[in-house]
Write a structure and sequence with these properties.
Oligomer: single chain
Order of helices and strands: HHEEEHHHHHHEEHEHEE
Strand content: 15-25%
Helix content: 25-40%
Radius of gyration: 20 Å
Structural class: alpha+beta
Number of helices: 10
Strand order of the largest sheet: 5-4-8-7-6
Mean pLDDT: 93
Distance between the termini: 34 Å
Length: 266
């Protein structure tokens, strides 16, 4: 698999540094100029630019969209942009002008060339920030919980969602991840062996019988950031009536108009 090569490159780079990975040090060691500035809300999170006259790469990070040097969003954005530099065909395309400065602001569920390029950079970023062997030491054999993910995320200085996606891709415990805005599902992901494919209403509105549903429909955040028991019939599109009573845990992080939940079997 092509992505495996990106993991190897990221692991090799990460092995030279300590956890949490000091991204600015990596950029400095590669003579990449990182610039944090306000580029507007409706533009990009990050952009990588090659300047032929200086024979040097520049990475622009947009602070207006919440990216800062020390916060988790800014760290993932910078790691993503470093992916465009360290992935050979990205770097060569930028150097030769075959690829325009790539903007880290895209539809994560598209299927065009830009989607592929951005997915490659995202994969590199996850591996750079959370090197596989080190990450596995932290999570393998541990009982899954939202609190465990939060603890590991803090160690690597990454967001809860980035850490949860990294864990999901390890296929250790079947989980489903859901991100919603204003009660509408923006995206969902699941482990290959998670018992249900869809939420109760598919990829439209948040089910009422979830912690996330209580937050959006009742304004109740009292059960946020803790493991709460929910029932399959209230949460998922089940296949048989006898499945409705199956118990799951939900760990929900509500924030403003947003909410992110993890579901796993009790």
């Amino acid at each position: 698999m092509k992505f495996k090569a990106y993991q190897n490159v990221a692991d090799s780079i990460a092995s030279l540094y300590t956890i949490p990975i000091p991204l600015i040090d990596i950029a400095n060691d590669e003579d990449i100029k990182v610039i944090y500035d306000d580029y507007g809300m409706d533009t990009f999170d990050g952009m990588t630019w090659y300047e032929p006259s200086q024979r040097r790469f520049f990475i622009h990070i947009n602070t207006e969209r919440g990216n800062n040097a020390d916060n988790t969003k800014g760290r993932f954005t910078l790691a993503h942009e470093l992916g465009h530099y360290f992935i050979d065909h990205h770097r060569h395309a930028l150097e030769t002008g075959k690829m325009q400065p790539h903007i880290h602001y895209y539809n994560p569920f598209g299927k065009n060339d830009e989607w592929i390029i951005e997915r490659e950079a995202d994969y590199f970023a996850a591996n750079l920030l959370m090197p596989k062997d080190e990450f596995m030491k932290d999570v393998k054999g541990e009982e899954f919980s939202g609190q465990m993910i939060q603890s590991v995320a803090s160690k690597y200085n990454v967001s809860f969602s980035a850490c949860a996606i990294r864990y999901m891709n390890m296929n250790l415990v079947p989980i489903m991840l859901v991100y919603a805005v204003d009660g509408k599902i923006k995206w969902q992901m699941r482990s290959d062996d998670f018992p249900f494919y869809l939420l109760r209403y598919g990829k439209t509105k948040v089910p009422e019988g979830t912690v996330m549903g209580d937050y959006f429909y009742k304004g109740d955040s009292s059960c946020g950031k803790q493991s709460e028991v929910v029932f399959a019939g209230d949460c998922f599109h089940t296949y048989r009536e006898e499945q409705n009573g199956l118990e799951f845990f939900e760990y929900c992080i509500p924030f403003g108009k947003h909410a992110f939940s993890v579901f796993w079997e009790k």
